[in-house]
Amino acid sequence: MTETIRTGGCQCGAVRFRIHGALGRVSICHCRMCQKQFGSFFGAFVAVPNDGVEWIREEPSYFQSSVNIARGFCQRCGTPMTFRQPDGLEITIGAFDDRSDLAPTIQINHAARLPWVETIFQAEVHDNSDYYKRQESIISFQHPDEETANWPEHGLKL
Fold it and tell me: How far is residue 96's CA from residue 35's CA, in Å, rounded to a whole number?
């Protein structure tokens, strides 16, 4: 039987990880601390095995946001990475290279959600193909969603 390994990392590639073993609960949290951590409407996380996280390059830096919770981020680019509490670690869904199967199955702190968050996907969709063609031609400094990338211009190598 083959071990399941998942990979991911921050926007600049300084913090990269491998997860060995099965992932746990996939959730979104509406609490104010998650809103502030992400600068967004909610935080999205997946629980990872306590002994299955391998930090490939740098480990995240941590901010102790409450007595029991530390929030990890990349010190270089600021990408939100983790939610650590005494009983385990969760990693942000967006940090995984392949996120396609990480649909949240539970909402946490639902009473603290922003009142309009239930309707955000009913908003008009901006579909300007010229705009997106221009975006594709921009040179990106973001680390690609793969572990084998070599980024010498940032001093980052695997």
Answer: 20
| Alpha-carbon distances, residue 83 vs 43, 72, 97, 127 (angstroms) | 10, 6, 18, 34
User: What's the chain's average pLDDT?
Assistant: 87
Q: How many CB atoms lie within 10 A of CB 54?
A: 12
Report CA torsion sign: 31, 58, 141, 145.
negative
Tell me the C-alpha distance between 14 and 60, whole Å: 9
What DSSP letter does each residue of 90-145 carry, written as one string? EEEGGGBS--TT----EEESGGGS-TTGGGGGGSPP---HHHHHHHHTSPP-SPPS
* 52-74 pLDDT tens trace: 999 998 999 999 999 999 999 99
> Is residue 53 a contact partner of residue 63, using CB atoms and an 8 Å limit?
no
Q: What band does 145 get if pLDDT is binned at 50, 70 and 90?
A: confident
Mean pLDDT of 124-137: 73
